[in-house]
Write a structure and sequence with these properties.
With 488 residues, the chain is mostly helical. Helix content is 85%, strand content 0%. It has 20 helices and no strands. It is globular, with a radius of gyration of 22 Å. The two termini are 31 Å apart.
């Protein structure tokens, strides 16, 4: 029992600092993106969104698999880290060469003058390869407090670069150099924070062992990235850059909120569960706590954001972006299930079952592409494409959870029972604050009233029905506050 408590407390502390790091960076990044959205057009954002599809695919080959293998391997040492560094660096050079060569063909296929944009943006692959190794080392040691400095410096400096270039009329170049600057600054700062430097070591034997675990995750990541970005590729080809800009902007709002929590779960769950992978009961306890707590936070945020979507967009981005509201509301439902997906998949990885992980990705992509095809050819609307993501995500919750019935004795119906209270409370809260839009005309006042009333209703109902996640967070919050007071 003492071991269980130790790990639960440790994962909560690590989650807290990881969440603080990602939240701080994302808040600044979000503010920067709002300023850029006022200076740039949906078409310019659409061009960048399309370019990032190909960068993301290239990054899968560079970053996926090996970094996770380093975290999962219990006895990883300097030889492992240096071997992975040289392997990923070599892959980065190959990936950039392919992007450089294919850029004209991609530009012609999408009827965009984007060759020079893609060739320059592709340079972001090189610092990204180094950062993936640095993050693996931090994750193994669960030193998430040390990430705060690099994240903040990266988003602040890159934000200044992006805004300055956009203000001067550089258009898409502002978004491209913002991306590159962010990764370069992160890489430089992490060299000092992590204090790790590659050595001239490459072990073929270690490479084979890490690759035997990592190649399945690489294939899974490639399938996942291709599927996730397939919607952007289809919209960019079937419609135009402006529609793609509205689609991705609608996706950005829930993504900013959820990526903080989901990224924290992703970073903390794998090393935490990997440390107790031989103790199924302890691992299940950690996973169950992660799902309960994250869902309790995520669901009211997504339901609330869907309700306040229109006044939020009109107030923050101006009327030229109102076309993104329907996409935003649909995406909120999709992203609400993200922590459940992440917790289940990271549990599978931590238990060393990357083979199961790959099998799940193949199954999900088969039915996902079928659903997307129906949306594209039968409904012929970009909104239908967004809805297809919701349908695929709902089915995916069952698919991702199914192996953990055997691996961790944590079934899908147990998970559903754990998150159902927060879903019901969130829906009640959303229904309660919706009528305010018909009586309050001012966007600022409407947002203030809806958010305040929503928070009050959700917390009051949580306390009234003694929701487990609420009580857990309340007790942990009091504990952190008392610890802070003693330290002060």
């Amino acid at each position: 029992m003492g071991i269980v408590r130790f790990n639960v407390d440790k994962i909560f502390s690590s989650f807290f600092y990881k969440f603080l790091q990602t939240t701080s960076a994302q808040v600044i990044q979000f503010i920067v993106s709002l300023i850029l959205a006022r200076l740039l057009t949906p078409e310019e954002y659409g061009i960048q969104a399309l370019l990032l599809v190909f960068i993301n695919i290239a990054n899968i080959f560079i970053q996926s698999g090996f970094s996770t293998a380093l975290v999962q391997k219990l006895d990883a040492d300097e030889k492992d880290f240096s071997t992975v560094f040289w392997a990923t660096s070599g892959v980065a050079f190959v990936a950039y060469f392919v992007l450089f060569f294919c850029a004209p063909f991609i530009s012609e296929f999408y009827s965009m003058n984007a060759t020079k944009y893609l060739r320059v943006l592709g340079l972001v692959l090189f610092p990204g390869a180094v950062v993936s190794i640095q993050l693996a080392k931090i994750s193994r040691e669960m030193r998430f407090k040390s990430l705060l400095k690099s994240s903040l410096l990266g988003v602040i400096i890159s934000g200044i670069v992006g805004i300055s270039m956009a203000y001067k009329g550089f258009g898409v170049w502002a978004l491209i150099f913002q991306q590159i600057t962010n990764q370069v600054v992160n890489c430089i700062v992490l060299f000092f924070v992590v204090a790790w430097y590659p050595r001239f070591i490459f072990s073929v034997e270690r490479f084979k062992k890490l690759f035997s675990f990592g190649w399945k995750l690489l294939c899974s990541g490639l399938l996942n990235s291709l599927y996730n970005d397939l919607q952007n590729l289809v919209i960019g080809k079937k419609y135009n850059a402006s529609v793609l800009g509205l689609y991705t902007r609608g996706q950005q709002f829930p993504n900013v909120l959820i990526s903080n929590i989901d990224g924290s779960i992703n970073s903390v769950m794998l090393p935490a569960l990997a440390q107790v992978q031989e103790h199924k009961d302890i691992a299940k306890n950690l996973m169950r706590r992660a799902i309960k707590t994250s869902s309790y936070i995520v669901w009211p945020m997504m339901i609330g954001l869907a309700v306040v979507a229109e006044p939020t967009v009109r107030l923050i981005l101006t009327d030229k972006w109102l076309g993104c509201v329907p996409y935003l509301q649909i995406m909120c439902i999709t992203y609400a299930f993200m922590p459940i997906h992440t917790s289940n998949l990271q549990a599978i990885n931590a238990m060393g079952r990357s083979d199961v992980f790959l099998q799940l990705e193949i199954v999900k992509k088969i039915y996902g592409i079928a659903i997307l095809s129906i949306a594209v050819f039968c409904f012929k609307s970009p909104l239908a494409i967004a809805v297809s993501g919701v349908v695929g995500g709902l089915i995916g919750t069952f698919v991702n959870a199914s192996p953990n019935k055997k691996i961790m004795d944590y079934s899908y119906f147990e998970q559903l029972k754990d998150i159902l209270p927060c879903i019901l409370l969130s829906v009640v809260m959303g229904v309660a604050i919706t009528p305010l839009a018909s009586v309050i005309q001012s966007d600022i006042l409407l947002l203030f009233c809806q958010i305040l009333l929503g928070v009050i209703i959700y917390i009051a109902l949580s306390a009234l029905f003694r929701i487990d996640a609420f009580l857990y967070l309340w007790n942990k919050g009091i504990g952190i506050w008392r610890e802070h007071k003693r330290g002060a």
